[in-house]
Amino acid sequence: MIKDYFIMLIEQYGNSGIIVSLMLEFLGLPIPGEPLMAFLGYLTWKNPSESLILSIIYAVIGTFLGSVLAYAIGFRYGENFLIKYGKYIFITQDKLEYTERMVNKNKVLLLLFSRYIPGVRHIVPYLSGISKIKLSSFLLYNLIGSIIWCTSFIGLGFVLGENWNRIEMIAKGYFSIFVLLIGFIFIVIKYFGKYKKMIFTVTFPVLLFIKLSEDLIRNELTVFDQTIYDYLSTFISKSTTTIMVVITYMGSAQILVLIALLSYVILRRNKNYTLYGKVIAVNLGATWIFNEVFKVIFHRQRPDILRLVEVGGFSFPSGHSMVSLSFYGLILYFVYKNTEDSLKKYLLVTFFSLLILSIGISRVYLGVHYASDVLAGFSAGFAWLAIFITLINKYYR
Q1: Taking the CA of residue 339 as centre, how many other CA atoms within 13 Å lie in the half-sphere pointing to its CB?
Q2: The pLDDT of residue 103 is above 60
Q3: Helix (H/G/I), strand (E/B), else coil: 226
């Protein structure tokens, strides 16, 4: 198999093998990049002397250089080639010009996240060159996209350890979601343009929640949950536990209700913001109700492991994760919309994002939720938040 050949190449030639393999993949060869990088993460896990950061750097160099070469080929030869031979595969001048406009319009999203879709990531660098995307923009977003992609899969391989090869099965399972998502996007753009922003925002988290639910019913989440917990449990200590208890308390019902009440009291003093306080309270109540309904439906028992705090109730999806994302996310949205200073906006986004993520991690660390519970909670909370914001913008503009 081609995967085994390139794994052998990495084992034999080390960092140079990494660079060559990923360069060739982004030039169009059918090389499975995700399993290769997961294997690379596993090697750094197995050999403590190997640097995880250094492995990511070499992988980024390979993907970045491969993409730049593809861009250069597309820029120099792509348009002439398609004009000359495109007629045989029904590519006309009009279609080519339309594609170029679409690529330029959506270049940031394509260059940052197309790598997660097999096949698409091989085409995008060539299309970027054909579309004459400004070189400086291509280099910047291509570098950021390479860092995100390489870090995520090498990190997964490092976390999964001996189970690194499961990443291929996971990638195949979620590839079908991406294919469905692409088809769905075309349908939405054509028939539901008025609500396309909300639909696009909701679609992926809903599909992720459905996939996790399906895996839960089939009992296919055990290895994933156990691997994440085994990794986090290595950090267990008295001081870390104290910090995690404080963080998890920020997502508790007592704190969220208190913040909602304070928001209502403070905001009602200004008639321009009175509605915000009411909406925050309604969102908190609605999210909590949805979470309880999901828990009753799935009826998943909490982890039977070392619990550093005691809680009751069912486990899937995580209430702290779902409600915190919806609650703090809505507050962030209101503050962001009413803040003009760009630096303050970025600081707010960073603060609330880290807070929400930390609350989710604390639930797994404390042994009261599985990692899949937290991921499902984030998915459901994000989807509901997008729907809720759309509704309040429609009826209370």
Answers
A1: 15
A2: yes
A3: helix
